[in-house]
Amino acid sequence: MANTITADDIREHFSQAMSAMYQQEVPQYGTLLELVADVNLAVLENNPLLQ
Q1: pLDDT in tens, 1-51
Q2: Is residue 25 part of a domain?
Q3: Where would one find the signal peptide in this protein (predicted)?
Q4: Domain for residue 11, yes or no?
């Protein structure tokens, strides 16, 4: 059974596909994802205990 896929892998691929599809439908969604990533990075850089 070397070709099995874990439930986590299925969820990850599904969510990535849904995100890509939604970005095509709603271009600002991509901008929102970038903003969230920037804020998350800034918070982690300024709060080492969160890492």
Answers
A1: 578 999 999 999 999 999 999 999 999 999 999 999 999 999 999 998 998
A2: yes
A3: none
A4: yes
